[in-house]
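pinning this so it doesn't scroll away 📌
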Amino acid sequence: MAEQDGIFEATEGDRWFARNRDTLARFDPAADPPLRMMELQGLIPHRVLEIGAANGMRLAALGRLHPNADLTAVEVSRAALADGSGRHPHIHFVEARADDLPLTEPFDLIIVNFVLHWIGRPRLLRVFAEIDRLLVDGGHLVIGDFHPEGPVRTPYHHLPDAEVFTYKQDYSAPLVATGLYGLVSMVTVDHRNHAFAAGVPETDRSGVWLLRKGLYTGYRSADTGTIKR
């Protein structure tokens, strides 16, 4: 099987950016589900990492709302990185894959929007490990992605001759299952117009999940039965 993470790193990341450059230029923060989720929950981030940030349009909008926030964008597309560095000099752009992030300082907010479905399955748990390594205890993670009834594998239509797939599933579930992440909020989104909506058909449904990392907050005391905080 093709090592699809390498394909995105070498060629398809730049091609994706070329196809979507005009759409990114029309980015509307008021209609962006991750930003709307953060606004509804009243998050005030200080150090923000976005994995798969394209040219940084979402981080730039977040920076306008929170001028004192420190912003870091990770992306594999060199074209997106070059464009973003020219547009948003206040954002720290890093060329890296999601499973191998050359970062050491922790963040209190990490955003991963419509990235995880492209990750090759052999590397998915490494991506989760990198996210967990860089998110502080008590920090928040925003995940946006497709939200089918159950895991679905679909051939990637832009590369019909390669063994490349998109993998659609609830990516909050593995983290919540550890007991170390709690679900703060989740909304379903109509992928056609990015509107928060209920009853969206499975083929058009995506979701935004807000998780809070709590290494010890979910454990009950064996003696008292109370939750330790």
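📌 and the second one:
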Amino acid sequence: MIVRQSNFRVSLIAAMSCAVVATALFGCNSRVSLGPVADAHSVADIRTAFGGAEQAAAAGSGGAAIGTGWATIKGHFVFDGTPPKMSPYAVTKDQATCAPGGKIPLQETLLIDGSGGIKNIAVYLREASRVNDSAQPKGGEVVFDQKSCMFLSHVIGATVGQTLDIKNSDDVGHNTNIVGKNQFNQIIPAGNSVPLKLQKEEATPAAVTCSIHPWMSAYLLPRANGYFAVTAADGSFEIQNVPAGEKLDFQVWHESAAGAGGALVITTPEAKALEWSNKGRFSVTLQPDEVKEIKVTVPASAFRGLRG
């Protein structure tokens, strides 16, 4: 009998404790909640928890939503006016190698072909909310050669993680000097090469020179992804599989551009339609699977030392 009374007292105390806890949590006449009511904050938290942080942040802050799908942008840069003539480099030594046959190579500071196309303009996406598989950072080597005391690629782009194979195809040595975040300064013996693994992205192309032959010059653009292009001899470029459905800001650079840091600043009506800024940037929003082609006419005044 004593045991039964003890058991009864324990059960009674446990029941009373549960009642007190329930009252404290829900009140005397409250029903147990069946779950939270969905609101904007809850939705944002859930999206964040399941990897949608960017979308949730955009929705919660009123910012631009992340788009879907991919698109392509392509176009031409055309010089408006009479192209300037390039002067020969000031070759002061190793003439047999650097001026073969007595012919001194011309400078490459502003190359314009017969159609007016402008070579060596760098066009690249400043920031990407997402990156297509085709534009992910690549491995392998990018050849960066020197011949006849000239860099064979005057403006060259690569992705971070790639190895720059700095070659010397001449019969004299070169001292290749790369400034910036991927700093490099080494002697490349005749007929040899030295690898440089690119570790960091650059906001603008980094200058490359040779202290042995000071007229030599080139530019290296390492980027975190493949959303960049350097215009061909006819001024054409193409960047595939960029994010669609969202505003994209592209930087446009040329070594002789009059804008700060090489920014190519254009104020023509067609540039205004692209929201071209005084920092050498234009903006577009592309639809999924769209192939947008632009033609940019560049006045002479956009380059240093030239008049429109």
